[in-house]
């Protein structure tokens, strides 16, 4: 079996492979690029595994005229920039000792040892520079069945890095078979190691969770997280009952998946504190949830929040209230997004000043909105 695609035949990438192979070393594509190519999904990052020591990789790159960047050289990773395209080149390695996300590694010349330290069998697939697939641990059948399965002992893989609990569900959401469910042995190991989640960086948990929610349909994976206790462990107070309806409504409205919209559907306590989101992300998620449970009409939502966020609010509202989607709301929403309030504070001075000025301006703005934006500046000033 071979992987194909423009990414593997690209001249900058083949040049990096030739650099290693001409010196007598292996150059094997590994991980996401191989997995996605076999699934006919887009390939973003190019990772290359080799039996060349990292210092040798740096030396060979410099001799070939490339720019080597020692991004993680203590763990065997060197980023080689070839014609502007980055390639992460990592020496085969095995874990000697692990401490959560931290590990003591030893470099190796055995691709099977390198494969055993990875997380899931579908991520332990390699390919030579000509595309020939190497499957040291039997991951191909799992990939073909879209089965996310831990390599060898699931509990050991989780103890090596507790973030793999969330990755287990994220990979199921993106690459798994939703009809088949999650691997039972993996789920059992997850349930036994929930305490390890408390030691993870909140930023990493938040980033992983948002990636999961950005999958085409994360609802089955999130339901499995709830069933085994992971959802409550990472986001207490979350309720996933509106998630599947939201995904369905998004399809009806032609809305692209959006992790923050779906996070707002889950709710939960102390979202910013739990996930350490950016201020903009936290504000948006909080606003979407608050407005979805409010009473503003579509026209006002468009005026106050714009067409994109306004539609997200309407989608969330329909999902939370178990209502159907209606395109009839889009016309007033779009109209509201294009209008501007015709009055300014200066228009009401000096008749109004101080707090009363702001209060009166808001009263008139609300009357203007309630009129369907029909009231003119003169109408309001006449009062």
TrEMBL record:
PROSITE patterns for the chain: PROKAR_LIPOPROTEIN
GO molecular function, one term: tRNA binding
Ranges of residues in domain Poly A polymerase head: 29-149
Protein name: CCA tRNA nucleotidyltransferase
SUPFAM superfamilies in UniProt: Nucleotidyltransferase, Poly A polymerase C-terminal region-like
Family: Belongs to the tRNA nucleotidyltransferase/poly(A) polymerase family.
PANTHER family according to UniProt: CCA TRNA NUCLEOTIDYLTRANSFERASE 1, MITOCHONDRIAL
Cofactor requirement: Mg(2+)
Pfam families registered for this protein in UniProt: PolyA_pol, PolyA_pol_RNAbd
Protein source organism: Roseovarius bejariae
Keyword Thylakoid: no
tRNA nucleotidyltransferase/poly(A) polymerase RNA and SrmB- binding domain: residues covered: 184-239
Keywords: Magnesium, Metal-binding, Nucleotide-binding, Nucleotidyltransferase, RNA-binding, Transferase, tRNA processing
GO terms (BP aspect): tRNA processing
Membrane is among the record's keywords: no
InterPro entries per record: Bact_CCA-adding_enz_type3_sf, NT_sf, PolA_pol_head_dom, PolyA_RNA-bd
């Amino acid at each position: 079996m071979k992987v194909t695609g423009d990414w593997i035949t690209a001249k900058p990438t083949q040049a990096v492979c030739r650099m290693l192979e001409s010196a007598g070393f292996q150059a094997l594509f590994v991980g996401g690029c191989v997995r996605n190519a076999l699934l006919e999904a887009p390939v973003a990052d190019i990772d290359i595994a080799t039996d060349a020591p990292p210092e040798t990789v740096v030396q060979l790159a410099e001799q070939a005229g490339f720019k080597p960047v020692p991004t993680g050289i203590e763990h065997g990773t060197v980023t080689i920039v070839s014609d502007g395209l980055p390639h992460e080149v990592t020496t085969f390695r095995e874990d000697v000792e692990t401490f959560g996300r931290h590990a003591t590694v030893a470099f190796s010349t055995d691709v099977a040892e390198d494969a055993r330290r990875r997380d899931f069998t579908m991520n332990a697939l390699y390919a030579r520079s000509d595309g020939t697939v190497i499957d040291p641990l039997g991951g191909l059948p799992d990939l073909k069945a879209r089965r996310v399965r831990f390599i060898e002992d699931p509990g050991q893989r989780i103890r090596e890095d507790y973030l793999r609990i969330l990755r287990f569900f994220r990979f199921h959401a993106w690459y798994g078979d939703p009809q088949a469910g999650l691997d039972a042995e993996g789920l059992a190991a997850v349930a036994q190691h929930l305490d390890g989640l408390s030691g993870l960086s909140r930023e990493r948990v938040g980033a992983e969770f948002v990636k999961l929610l950005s999958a085409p349909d994360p609802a089955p994976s999130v339901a499995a997280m709830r069933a085994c206790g992971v959802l409550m462990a990472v986001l207490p107070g979350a309720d996933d009952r509106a998630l599947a309806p939201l995904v369905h409504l998004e399809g009806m409205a032609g809305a692209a998946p959006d992790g923050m919209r779906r996070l707002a559907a889950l709710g939960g306590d102390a979202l910013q504190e739990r996930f350490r989101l950016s201020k903009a992300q936290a504000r948006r998620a909080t606003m979407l949830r608050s407005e979805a449970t409010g009473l503003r009409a579509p026209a006002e939502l468009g005026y106050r929040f714009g067409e994109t966020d306004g539609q997200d609010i309407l989608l969330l509202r329909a999902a939370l209230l178990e209502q159907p989607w209606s395109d009839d709301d889009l016309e007033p929403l779009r109209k509201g997004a294009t209008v501007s309030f015709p009055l300014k504070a200066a228009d009401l001075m000096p008749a109004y000043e101080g707090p009363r000025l702001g209060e009166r301006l808001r009263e008139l703005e609300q009357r203007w909105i309630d009129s369907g934006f029909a009231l003119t500046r003169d109408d309001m000033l006449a009062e």
